[in-house]
Amino acid sequence: GAVVSQHPSRVICKSGTSVKIECRSLDFQATTMFWYRQFPKQSLMLMATSNEGSKATYEQGVEKDKFLINHASLTLSTLTVTSAHPEDSSFYICSARDIHEQYFGPGTRLTVT
Amino acid sequence: GEDVEQSLFLSVREGDSSVINCTYTDSSSTYLYWYKQEPGAGLQLLTYIFSNMDMKQDQRLTVLLNKKDKHLSLRIADTQTGDSAIYFCADHNQGGKLIFGQGTELSVKP
């Protein structure tokens, strides 16, 4: 299957700083990418849908000014967590759609101290 | 709204078959997916089925879809310890989003 990478895999940052997470589709072009958040022992919560060349569509309850999404090319989407707080600590996973299939990255563990 | 439900735990012995069940409510779903997640990792796409199909087989995996009852199952034949993981079913809705179940934790005992 197709490969989606995420960078970094783990990040620890201080409260109040911003963190950028990159999501890349390595062997296909993805006009649509998705960002999810997963809490321990829980399912994935869709945060936003990222479309190449246009603004992201955020799910209800997700602050667009806090979670900035940029999808500047067909293989790269970025999620920036601005002014991070300890409650933003979580596992963030991106996915990229290739026709009917959606492939997931390995996830980024964010810890805010 | 749309909902996807799974049982939370399943325990089997190595070599047995595992059957993970899923129900969904979306009557207009187009595809249904099965993903596997190992600890600390992302989701691995195992297989998917079009809503106009009843069954799909791929090596040790068999997916059965009962569209009338909105019931999806994943059968893993000859289950191995390496199959221990959390399995998510997901419904692809009309808006192009995946709606996930809570995940079923499969434990394979030697």
Topology of helices and strands:
The complex is a heterodimer of chains A (113) and B (110).
Chain A: E1 4-7, E2 10-13, E3 19-25, E4 32-38, E5 44-51, E6 57-58, E7 67-73, E8 76-81, E9 90-98, E10 101-104, E11 108-112
Parallel strand pairs in A: 2-11
Antiparallel strand pairs in A: 1-3, 3-8, 4-5, 4-9, 5-6, 7-8, 9-10, 9-11
Chain B: E1 4-6, E2 9-13, E3 18-24, E4 31-37, E5 43-50, E6 55-58, E7 61-66, E8 71-76, E9 85-92, E10 98-100, E11 104-109
Parallel strand pairs in B: 2-11
Antiparallel strand pairs in B: 1-3, 3-8, 4-5, 4-9, 6-7, 7-8, 9-10, 9-11
Description of the structure:
The complex is a heterodimer of chains A (about 110) and B (about 110). Chain A is mostly beta strands. Chain A has no helices and eleven strands. In chain A, the strands form two sheets. In chain A, strands 2, 4, 5, 6, 9, 10 and 11 form a seven-stranded mixed sheet that branches. In chain A, a hairpin with a 5-residue loop joins β4 and β5. The mean pLDDT of chain A is about 95. By secondary structure, chain B is mostly beta strands. Chain B contains no helices and eleven strands. Chains A and B meet through β5, β9 and β10 of A and β4 and β5 of B.
Query: Considering DSSP H and I runs of 4 or more, what fraction of the residues of chain B is helical?
Result: under 10%
Main sheet characteristics of chain B: 6 strands, mixed
Give me the oligomer status: heterodimer
Secondary structure category of chain B:
mainly beta
Low-confidence stretches of chain B: none
Percentage of residues in DSSP E strands of chain A? over 45%
Radius of gyration of chain A, CA atoms, in whole angstroms: 13 Å
Individual helix count of chain A:
0
The mean pLDDT of chain B is 93
Q: What are the low-pLDDT stretches of chain A, counting only 5+ consecutive residues below 50?
A: none
**Strand segment count of chain A:** 11
